[in-house]
Amino acid sequence: MTNEHYTNVERALLQYAMSLGVVSEEKLILFHAKSKELIKQKDDQDEQEAIAQERSLDHAIDLINQKLYPLDYKIAKVLNQEKGDSYYVYCNTSEDKPSTAATQFTTAEIDVIKKLIDFIITEGGINESYVIGSSNAIKKVSSSITSYTASQSQQFLDKLVNSGWFNLSQNGKYSLSLKTLTELKSTLIEKYSKREEGGLIDICLGCKDIVTVGVRCPNQTCHIRLHEACENNYSRARRDQGRVCPCGNDWSENDLLPVGESVLRGL
Ligand SMILES: [Zn+2]
Ligand SMILES: [Zn+2]
């Protein structure tokens, strides 16, 4: 690894990932190919740039992450919980988040972000819906920042969605975004503990990332949770043994239960 050089291809990839924050694997593969093609067309392409032509996207990301490591940033590859496709998230890896977003928000606003996250995990974690309704969210904002009017509170929530902290569903429920889950993964696990240890954070049996949208074993005392795509992989890999949970519950006889907003619709 040490004698591999960072080139304009990796530089362009990093710029692109930074500017988007969250980018699909499909889009980043295309961008990487295009960047390599541009360098190839240069007359004065050097030896290192020729080597960069042969790199896969993940290999290039590894090189970028080595550069980012001392700066407490990285580009993480994560699964989109709903659709099961992969995304790259440019994220801060330092401790004490979301305080690191201080440049974008005031201290009072960061406190509200923490309160919203806290509600989503503690209240939303009880039934495993992991959401907060919009009227409740507005109340949380205006009771914390008393100088905000209702419409200012709404604007602030809009800003949180636009800047990628929260997702807003069609039914007006706020949930933790891919970016937030990726950046705060270790912070959330540390603060709220994993469900298997008596806490509120669901960890996927397949990919080991946090599950806030997915499925759960119908056995009430079992802690097994999975993203839907990870459950498909798990069950496909164990086709011969049947769709059986590590706890012994047979999922072909007892339907898996939802995790996420659909809990509220009784699906
Ligand atoms: Zn998973
Ligand atoms: Zn189970």
TrEMBL record:
Offer a single GO CC term for the protein: Smc5-Smc6 complex
Superkingdom of the organism of origin: Eukaryota
Enzyme class, top EC level, equals: transferase
Reactions this protein catalyses: S-ubiquitinyl-[E2 ubiquitin-conjugating enzyme]-L-cysteine + [acceptor protein]-L-lysine = [E2 ubiquitin-conjugating enzyme]-L-cysteine + N(6)-ubiquitinyl-[acceptor protein]-L-lysine
All copies of domain Non-structural maintenance of chromosomes element 1 RING C4HC3-type, residue ranges: 204-246
Alphabetically sorted, this entry's keywords are: DNA damage, DNA recombination, DNA repair, Metal-binding, Nucleus, Transferase, Ubl conjugation pathway, Zinc, Zinc-finger
- Alphabetical GO biological process terms: double-strand break repair via homologous recombination
* Cellular localisation: Nucleus
Which EC number applies?
2.3.2.27
Pfam families associated with the record: SMC_Nse1, zf-RING-like
**What family is it from?**
Belongs to the NSE1 family.
- Protein name in UniProt: Non-structural maintenance of chromosomes element 1 homolog
